[in-house]
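1st attempt posting a full record on here, be nice pls
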Amino acid sequence: MLYNHYCDIIRKHYERFGFVPLRTPLVERVETLTSKGGEAKEIYGLRRLMASEELVDESKLALRFDHTVPLARFVVQNSGTLTFPFRRYSMGPVFRGERPQDGRYRQFDQIDIDIIGRETLPLLCDAEVVAVIASVFQELSFGDFVIRINNRKIFQGMFEDAGIDKEQLNSAMRAVDKIEKIGKEKVIDELVEIGMTSEKAQNITKIMGSSGTTDELLDMLRNMDMGELFAAGVKDLTEVVQNVRALGVDEGDFHVDLSIARGLDYYTGTVYETRLVAHPEIGSICSGGRYEELTEVFGGKKFPGVGISIGLSRLFGKLLKTGIIKGEKHTTAQVLVLQLDKQFMMDYLGIAAELRKSGVNTEVYPEQKKFDKQMKFANKKGFETVVIMGEDEVAAGTVIIKDMASRKQKTVARQDILRCISA
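the predicted structure (as tokens):
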């Protein structure tokens, strides 16, 4: 129930910023998924167990690994009927070729937002995404968080300045994206193997490790000369930061971090990663970025976009394990009506019907059992309130209402039950 509650919070904040729900198919063509960002070893193919020759085309189908690539196909196919900028959110399962282990699943839920433009998309949208993330995690109350922001053009400019050509660009980007996982020295080794000099590789990792306030880091970047693409990335990053501040995002909730690269090939500009301050070991709890060319593989016009994804399934398990959140209730009902004597079953059902009509989720214990057993059931499932009515209460026209958190109970007139139990 707690999981669904978090989904509802995220949905509420997405809609507060004008995003509309959209569902795309679980199944896509293989070339759609591999065209931008998808690695074949992580994509699950789809086929019938008893496939006949005429169904051979089904080998070209696969399960989606994220919501963004299917969105790109949808936008291109429906561009004539969509109003741009197009804002959508998507909540649902994705599939990855993972070895199941703690925090890594073959199937897990992602909850995404994306803003798609036609031909152009203002950088204001990149800043709005930061504002959405901040709004969501403030209400989720998992603890202090920081949204780390960078721009991939800065990396691309550094790579060009270091002599890396376009064919090697994605390999270099994937190398620097692993710096927190494999360490600075191994990243330098990978960059040298790609074709960069050791001196240039060391300089790039030094820049990635730079510390300071957001304004100090931006000033440092503006004083560097690494070509036009690098300068364009710094300019874009500066504008995004200015807009984030104008949107009222707390200064402590975001920070420029020059180590953020994001490994997926389709990111071209702003990139984000969000971490819990007190629990960096959990890793990124929300990530994403801008993509300018994701739709080009489907032909037609250019539809640049920016978005983020919250992998709630993975995050939820980690939050439980670290104790940031506690075990959830096992019922959607607030009230349990006990059955102390089956001859009064009509009274129990009448109470439940009355509470439900007033918007109070209510469950009736289905059979007459010992009082202690029914109370144990109430505790285990996490009911907030228990209604108790035995022979004495029926005769007196009263009920006993017990608050399960405080363990306090009170006797009230039967007709006052609604006043004492609010939705």
